[in-house]
User: What shape does this take?
Amino acid sequence: MQDKVAKWWLPDDVVIVDEIPHTATGKIKKTSLRDTFAGYRLPTV
Assistant: This one.
């Protein structure tokens, strides 16, 4: 995709999760995701 879109449009990394946490109203629970990935570091090439 690098030759088709701008470099800053491409994600730095993609993480596959089994389930995305939701609130009681069905919205994505961003605070839970932030807590889960707080210490995450991008893999080095």
